[in-house]
Amino acid sequence: MTQPPNQLDLPPVFEPYREKLEATVKPYIQIQTHVTQTATLWQSKFLGLPYLPKPTSPPKTPAGDYLYLLAQINFAEVPNLEGFPSQGILQFYIAKDEFYLYGADFDNPTAQTHFRILYHPNPEPDESKLVTQFDFMPSPWDDDDRYMPFEIYSKYLSKPDSCLALTFHRKTAPISICDYQWTALTGFNPLAQGPDERNIAEGEFWLMLDSYSQQFSGHRLGGYPLFNQNDPRLGSQDDEPYVLLLQIDSEANGKIDILWGDAGICNFFIKPSALKKLDFSDVLYNWDCG
User: Fold this and answer.
1) pTM exceeds 0.85 for this model
2) At the topology level of CATH, where does 12-288 sit?
3) Please, which residues have CB within 8 angstroms of residue 226's CB and are 6 or more apart in sequence?
4) pLDDT digits (tens, 9 = 90+) for 15-36
């Protein structure tokens, strides 16, 4: 049977909560990756060489070590998403460290010392005005690549601009089960209620929850996040909650793999008022293991 337009395809256990779930639906941008060695400096990408107008240089840690480009989003390539920029280049940098933290500080997740967010509102179209030589920077693949959430296969290691090019698609989805607002908005607590009076076998019940959660995996801009552990926003006393800015999931494609610890997931969050002002100084960065 064909699903009516705009109606959620829900597992049976969620049917009693359909109206509340449909009220939470909001758009997001799905991101798909493509291995390339020919990405331009302006292009949206994971890894690779950054867009840098002269005479700027990549950000550094307090100790003076360069951060590496984790992600670059050129909003000229992204379908319109309410609240997000319609132009400009947004960059996410992280440190490569021996503690396998990928630049995260779990005690102070908004401290941009070992990660950094940069925004270029009006990208320079003249390449002669950009940094094009990056010999001063060590390759992300120098030393032990376990210090980075990526693995690269030897065929792609020879070029420093090997990266994952990105394409974007506008989608919609309801709230994810692991979002801290789930129980308040749906009235359903799976951990407390379980299969309950619907007489659903426990194994089938958890398979339904898992199938619902699968739609939140993958890379995305905006929408609702997915976690393997707890929502880092849980218990925050801020008057304005953080919303998802960017999610980068683990992904194995046999060329350049993404691996956050043990098949984990990475999220960057921002407050809507800061995003509206294009102020990326207060961004919450978190990743967790599978």
Assistant:
1) yes
2) Hypothetical protein YwqG fold (2.30.320)
3) 176, 178, 213, 216, 217, 247, 249, 265
4) 889 999 999 999 999 999 999 9
